Structure formats: C-alpha cells, structure tokens
Amino acid sequence: MTTKVGMVSLGCPKNRVDSEVMLGLLEEAGYQLTPEATEADVLIVNTCGFINSAKQESIDTILEMNQYREKGQLKALVMAGCLSQRYQQTLWDDLPEVDAMVGTGEFHRIVEAVEGALHGTRPHFWGEMPVSGVKTSRKLTTPHYTAYLKIAEGCDHSCSFCAIPQMRGGYRSRPLQDIIGEARQLVASGVRELILVAQDSTIWGHDLYGHPELPRLLYALQEIPDLVFVRIMYSYPTQITPQLVHAMRDLPVVAPYLDMPLQHAHPDLLQKMGRPFRRDKTERVINMIRDAIPDITLRTTFIVGFPGETDEHFETLLEFIQTMQFDHVGVFTYSHEEGTRAEKLGDPVPESVKQRRRREAMLVQRKLVGSVRGRHIGRVVPLLIEEMGDTVSVGRGVMDAPGIDGVTYVKGRYAPGQVIPVRISGTREYDLTAEALM
Predict the structure, then answer these.
(1) In CA terms, which of 30, 56, 124, 175 is 20 to 30 Å from 229?
(2) Nearest CA to 392 among 407, 370, 374, 373?
(3) 82 among the known binding-site residues?
(4) Phi, psi dihedral angles at 102 (to 5 degrees)
C-alpha cells in the first residue's frame, strides 16, 4: 500500500517554495500526497523561526500534528525548516515527538528523512545546500495560475533585529539559467503570475556576476510566452537603480509594483537596526520610481517598539507614512530574538506600548487608503481572476499581491486563472471595484 504524506507549511513564501520542492521530491519517490492530516502516514511541518510568535506557532503545530498518531493513522512526524535549522540540537533533544528533522540547508534530503523516520532511525540533517542543488518538479500549493519563484537563498545584510542569516546562511544567487528554466516549466504548467522572492531581490546576481543583475533577469523573463505578471518582492532602496526602474517601466510583463520593507524612518532607529539606508536616500529613490512609473504600487513594512524607540521616533515614523502615502503598509511589533545583535539592547519598550503604536500607525495608513487606492480609478489593467461567484468575480490586478494586499471585484462570471481587461471604477477601503472591458 502506498505511503501517504501530508505537509503543513508555515511562514513566508520562501518557506512555501521549499515545501513545494519537498512535495515534488516525495511524489517523484513514489509517495502519495494528501491534504488530509487524518489520512497521512507521515506528516511534515515546515517551520518558521523568524519571531517569537512564529516559533510558538511552529511548536504548537508540531504538537497538534502529533495527535494524529491517535486520531489518524500517523506513523512518523518530520520537522523541517527555519526553526529546525536555528535550534537544531535543542529541539532534537526537547521534542521526542519528532521522528526526523531537516534544516533549511538540507531539505533536499526529505525522502531520506521520511524513510529513516518510518524505519525508526530518527535521522537529522542540518548542513548547507548549494542554492541550485535541487532539480525537481515542484508540487504547487498556490492556485494553478500563481507561483513564487525563489531567485536567491540566504542574506548578507546585518540587520540587528534579524536572525535569518543564522537560519539561511549567506546570500547565494541562483544562476540565471536555473531560474529561467524553472520559470518556463511553471508557465508551461499554467502559471501566469510569477512572484520573485529572496531576502533581497534587488541584489540578485552580485555574487555570481560581480554586481546586481536583476534587470537582466527581468529581460529574460519577458521572453517567456504566456507569462502575464512578474512581481518583485523584498527589495532594498539602496539597490534600486535607474537601470532597474527603467526595466520595470519598459517591460510589459513586469508589474508596476515594488515591495520595499523599510522598517523605520528615524535615523537613530535605522542606525540601531543596522539598516543600510537613511530617510533622505529612501525618499529620493521613491521619487525617482514615481517619476519614471507614475502608476507604481509601493508596499512597505515597519517595526514599532524597537529598543530605544521614543515617542519622538514614533512620531517621525507616523509623519513619514503620511508624507510618502504608500499603497500598502504592514506594521509589526518588535520581537526580541536571541542570537541577534539587538539582543544586548534588551526589550525595554513595554508590550502595551508596542501594540498601541502598531494600532496608531495602522490607523494613519487606514485614513490614507481611500485617497491612495482612489488613484487607480479610471486605470485600465489586466485582472487575474481568482474566484468566480454567481454574479461577481474576484481578481487581482498589478497593484495587489496575493494574500497580503486587496482584491478587485468585477461583475460577471469569469474562471479562476483567466486574465481579463478591466477599468477600475471604485474603492471598497482596501479593495477595488472594476468594469470588464470584454
């Protein structure tokens, strides 16, 4: 009888890509994949270890999945991902429920881990894998028309609050031919939107070619037939060059959308955070982008409650949000992480203050949403349909990324994955309405 394997993937899209590769490897090895935990002989939890809440969710999920030994048919539980890599031996010793463990560097050994878990040898793998070392067909967990495309692994930045380099290693770009080969394979399978992800997408290629080459990658992606959108996530303002902006402007396949996590606006906090840019530089970059691409959609994220953040620092952040009028803003409270450079700063900002500042910052953004989203009214854009209702379909245009931004409602019945031209006609706070032009 075929062994059934289920997967729970936690954390960011980069982790999701790893999960999809593992699923592809397992299917190639003859395992049957199942979305039902009650049916699984083996369950894999691909964990996140970025902040405290994510770590707790990962542990809780492992303990929850372990219950299927009694209420399902579970024979083996495998722990993978960032938390496995970050805490290795500690978790190995503290979680006897786990029958095998693979870190972020060796998820390509998932078949070996599953086989060992089923045979009771309790294997664990924590090494570092070459970024282009896995050749397999991914098993997409996104809708058939959208896929994340990981273009690099790891991070070389030294942000004081972040433990990602501990979990993912140094920055390693995937070679151009590997990325384009995978992109062509995904598009041939029906994908119409590719979302580029890395810890810093804008420096892609610097370690392979001597300098960042993201524009070169975008030009290569433009040549793939039937690809509709390419969306860039996780960019740094220090590496957003005129060449990159011109490529985004000139290439029809590249969505006029840029995700640029800035984290703060006050120079004191940026310096403490180890962020390699300052507000004046950021404003110049944003103005350059908007001058070249007036319809650009800009997404960013901020951290409140970082050690030493005063009311004055926070007011500077609020003023920055009001002044720059980003299309999409996410605000997170600081998470005190062991092993980071910020650890020695302690965690002096009370949790209640962190939460209050988060609410205030999001309220400022919410008051701007109507005018910011209203700028799209009258635009004609391609709309990627995601859901068909009885009289209204739901989709996303170039201005919205899946799962984190808004959606667009259009009258009519259109199939998921279909791309139709629409004219934006109105707003519903974070969402939009549109009229079909077909």
Answers:
(1) 175
(2) 407
(3) yes
(4) -130, 135
Query: Do the beta carbons of residue 84 and residue 126 sit within 8 Å?
Result: yes
Residues in the chain: 438
Query: pLDDT tens digits, residue range 396-422?
Result: 999 999 999 999 999 999 999 999 999
Last residue of a domain, one of 374, 397, 419: 374
- Domain residues for 18? 4-125
pTM above 0.85, yes or no: yes
Is 234 annotated to bind a ligand? Reply is no
* Eight-class DSSP state of 202: G
Two tokens at 155? 């991070």
Residue 218 is labelled as binding a ligand: no
Q: H helices within 190-278, ranges in order?
A: 206-209, 214-222, 242-250, 267-273
Is residue 387 part of an annotated ligand binding site?
no
pLDDT digits (tens, 9 = 90+) for 272-304: 999 877 888 999 999 999 999 999 999 999 999
Same structural domain for residues 256 and 111? no
Answer yes or no: do 397 and 365 share one domain: no
Instruction: Verify that 399 and 299 share a domain, yes or no.
Output: no
Do the annotations mark residue 155 as ligand-binding?
A: yes
Q: Are residues 365 and 351 in the same domain?
A: yes
